[in-house]
Backbone:
């Protein structure tokens, strides 16, 4: 089991989801990104073109790093975020 | 000395070697391609956890494990062409004094993890970033802010006081300098991967050439240093009534040293501590 000792991985226990229909977007709102203590939300341009400013940004979630505090649910003005236990 | 210093340092630390700031590096096609791949793809890949986690854990033998680790490193290096090292403030000032034009630009990690598009915390020193960033306006919202060396040093001191770690970043394949980022956990992707994954995934952010040395007799247990550590290396021990330092986690950034009123903390060369000399 030597190889396991080298790893220090966070265990994924929750499932964080954003309702894309309700979400206003990270550029316009971004409340979840600004308030998350573990910074699990990631925003990225939908399509980046050389020489242009991209105005459409999508949000991805990396809930392996989620600490489960629930701040994002509280701060979302659209109530678009849900946290549930990950089903094994 | 880290392997990169041995290869590109000419007997010094690699980031203090003037050759690595040269514009000649822009003639190298691999560098140009790497810079453009970085600007095109950095957000979707830099923030996500290593995709192979579950597979790595399920594997049985050490051989399979090391193969999977190599494959993961390969996969990440295709997209993430930036590689860094922690430096203490005195080295950060030396880097600025060595470099050519210095500019302040907005931080890529804060943009992707905090939707903070305009916070200019990165001080770019090398030619690579400044030459190509112009073509990718997303990366330089509100422009490239050229500043004098004195101003840059003032900024670095300000960031140091605020509690940001200074990381020097370079191109993945070559020693071409990108600049100094001023980072914090968990908003910095580099520090975050360092803390979550430990030493096996260290190619993204190397520890500095230094490590902390704590003088127990001088320590009064005030706890100021505990709050400054971004690598979770310092804990307050109620039993000892002193701060305790995990040398293996210490990245040698020197932030704790700068607030210690008793001068109980100093940085020594990593080479001199047998327990951590090979831990990068």
Residues:
């Amino acid at each position: 089991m030597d190889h396991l000792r080298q790893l220090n991985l966070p265990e994924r226990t929750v499932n964080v989801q954003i309702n894309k229909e309700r979400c206003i977007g990270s550029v316009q709102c971004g409340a979840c990104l600004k308030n998350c203590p573990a910074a699990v939300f990631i925003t990225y341009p939908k399509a980046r073109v050389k020489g242009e400013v991209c105005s459409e940004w999508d949000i991805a979630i990396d809930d392996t790093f989620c600490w489960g505090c629930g701040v994002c649910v509280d701060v979302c003005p659209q109530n678009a975020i849900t946290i549930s236990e990950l089903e094994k | 000395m880290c392997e990169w210093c041995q290869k590109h340092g000419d007997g010094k630390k690699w980031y203090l070697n003037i050759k690595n700031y040269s514009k000649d590096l822009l003639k190298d096609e691999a560098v140009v391609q790497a810079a453009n791949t970085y600007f095109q793809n950095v957000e979707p890949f830099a923030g996500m956890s290593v995709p192979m986690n579950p597979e790595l854990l399920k594997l049985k033998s050490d051989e399979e494990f090391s193969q999977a680790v190599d494959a993961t490193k390969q996969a990440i290096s295709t997209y993430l062409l930036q590689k860094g090292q922690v430096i203490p403030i005195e080295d950060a000032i030396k880097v600025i004094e060595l470099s050519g034009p210095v500019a302040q630009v907005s931080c890529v990690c804060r943009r992707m993890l905090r939707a903070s598009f305009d916070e200019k915390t990165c001080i770019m020193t090398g030619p690579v970033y400044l030459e190509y960033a112009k073509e990718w306006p997303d990366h330089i919202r509100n422009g490239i802010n050229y500043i004098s060396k004195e101003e840059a040093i003032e900024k670095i001191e300000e960031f140091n006081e605020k509690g940001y770690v200074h990381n020097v970043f370079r191109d993945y394949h070559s020693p071409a300098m990108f600049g100094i980022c001023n980072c914090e956990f968990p908003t910095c992707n580099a520090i975050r991967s360092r803390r979550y994954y430990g030493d096996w995934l260290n190619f993204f952010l190397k520890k500095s050439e230094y490590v902390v040395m704590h003088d127990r007799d001088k320590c009064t247990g005030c706890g100021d240093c505990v709050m400054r550590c971004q690598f979770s290396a310092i804990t307050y021990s109620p039993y000892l009534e002193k701060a305790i330092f995990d040398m293996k986690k210490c990245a040698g950034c020197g932030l704790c040293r700068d607030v210690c009123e008793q001068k109980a903390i100093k940085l020594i060369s990593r080479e001199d501590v047998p327990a951590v000399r090979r831990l990068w």
User: Anything to note?
Assistant: Residues 17 and 82 of chain A are 5 Å apart (CA to CA). Chain A touches chain B at residues 2-4, 6-10, 26-27, 30, 33-34, 37-39, 41-45, 48, 50-54, 57, 60, 62, 64-65 (CB under 8 Å). The helical segments of chain A are 2-5, 31-35, 71-75. Residues 31-35 of chain A form the longest helix (5 residues).
